[in-house]
Amino acid sequence: MQVDLVIVGAGFGGSLMAMIARRLGLSVVLLEQGRHPRVVIGESATPLSNLLLEKLSMTYDLPRIAPLAKWGSWRRTYPHIACGLKRGFTFFHENGGQLLVAASPHDEIADTHWYRADVDLFFVIEAQRLGVHYRDCARIETLQIAEDSVNIHGAASDGPFRFEARLLIDATGPRGFLYRILQLEEAPLPGLPATQALYSHFTGVARTEDCDDANPYPVDDAAVHHVFPGGWVWVLRFSNGITSAGVAATQDAAGEFRLSEGEAAWERVLDRLPKLRAQFVQAVACQPFRYMPAVSFRSRKIAGQRWAMLPSAAGFVDPLLSTGFPLTLLGIERMAQVLNHGYTLERYADETEQDLLAANRLISALYSTMGNFDAFTAVTLIYFAAVSFSETAQRLGKTELASGFLLRERPEFWPAVNPLLRKASEFGDTRAFLEEVLRVIEPFNIGRFGDPAYCNRYPVRAADLMAARGKLTASEEEIVAMLARTGFAERRTEG
Ligand SMILES: Cc1cc2nc3c(=O)[nH]c(=O)nc-3n(C[C@H](O)[C@H](O)[C@H](O)COP(=O)(O)OP(=O)(O)OC[C@H]3O[C@@H](n4cnc5c(N)ncnc54)[C@H](O)[C@@H]3O)c2cc1C
Fold first, then answer.
1. β-bridge mates for residue 436, sequence order
2. pLDDT at site 204
């Protein structure tokens, strides 16, 4: 069978890519080694990823995908697809430090955690509705890449297959299909320590019941991070009573916990973090513990003649700050332009790599400051300033202000931020580091990040945005119109 495009891997990334390619008029085959529904993690969305999802669904006429971009529309439209409410990022440090950064002003337009078994099943069904030819339990036996076509052959649940395509997209995640079959090399991620992870899904996880009125949202309705020197734990709650939790740690810390031992190691993690232990007293793992001996990955090659990797197949840094979804969706946005002849594969590969390296620089700095929560907090402010500025600029239609993930193409931002991130752990004086961070992010800081009045608990306030409108070259009317468009004022608006 001759087709335009073969996509290998039907996570949400592969399925969304397939839908967009169908909307561009291409014939598409989607091959998945497993069978949906299946449990995977990589669950927490962000304002930027939701903005991208919304944009892609509008640009490529995918109205059935759009409701997933906000908690309120998701719950109303697809109550059977489990998700969690994510009002922001909560950080607890082992030494008692706390940081709360709201990402939305109220629940209706909040972000979500995706219960991937349900979500990925939904995406793959939608892809088939749009005419994608889907084969599961696929085992690929041979791949031949010629000058003008790709030949792929193997067997799926319903029998053998052989396809000739103009392009192959690898959406199989880190160390995936093309990396293995083409025997590609792994490249280093500069500055990032090697890390391991251990995770599962649980029932019976208690809420922390921290109901301080000064908090901008209930602390559990967030991506909750418990940070300690050498690692961190994530806790993400879903609407179906399941909670996703796991730990990522450097080799030393992972060795102390002996993460490869699974459940026993998880108990040792809980012993180390009493606040977390209190939540897990009644908790029971409802999936086998999964151990990842190596979390991060970077392929030296991202695209070649007749093939390309989606960002998650090209590389992955760490779950910290949920950069996986936005990078995946940025990659899909660019790949759609490749398919639409607006972009070259070389440019796609270069941009994908630059995004990954920017995420790597940020996350390396976070790992290097995990022992000093004030310095760690200062590094997170760089992230929150960059993403909130980018998101708002895009929502105002001023995309030229927000070029590149983490504003990496803004000459006033990234060249100043990069050296700071590089030497984050070397600053003897944390206060001097914070001051330097605040100075550098100031032209992009639209959320009063670092303002002591907020005591490390940052809300999303219309008044702050309005006061910072000059940084976005926006008028009062433009801000008011954007807030109305995005549903900002519909409920419990603050400020
Ligand atoms: C521990 C961990 C936690 C994470 N947490 C977050 C988070 O909170 N937020 C966030 O934004 N990102 C997170 N990520 C990253 C996130 O998982 C990815 O960005 C996201 O899953 C990418 O989606 P995808 O569909 O491209 O790939 P995947 O979700 O990796 O899907 C790949 C698909 O390909 C299939 N496949 C694999 N090999 C083959 C093969 N040879 N042939 C056919 N099919 C194959 C798999 O079965 C799977 O269905 C996390 C990653 C890890 C490792």
1. none
2. 97
**Does pTM top 0.85 for this prediction?**
yes
Q: Any idea what DSSP says for residue 97? A: -
Nearest CA among 351, 444, 353 for reference residue 390: 444
**Pocket-testing residue among 8, 178, 198, 325, ligand 1, by greatest number of atoms within 8 A of Cβ:** 325
Q: What is d(CA 386, CA 471) in angstroms, rounded to the nearest whole number?
A: 12
Q: Which two tokens stand for residue 99?
A: 């940081």
The confidence score (pLDDT) of residue 212 equals: 79
Q: For 223-233, write each residue's pLDDT tens digit.
A: 999 999 999 99
Q: Is 347 exposed, middle or buried (0-12, 13-18, 19+ CB in 10 A)?
A: middle
Residues in contact with ligand 1 (CB, 6 Å cut-off) = 8-14, 31-34, 40-44, 138, 140, 171-173, 176-177, 197, 199, 295, 310, 312, 319, 322, 324-325, 328
State which ligand 1 atom lies nearest to the alpha carbon of 116: 29
CA angle 433, 436, 438 (to 5 degrees): 110
**What separation in Å is there between the alpha carbon of 249 and the centre of ligand 1?**
19
pLDDT lower than 50: segments of the chain: 492-495
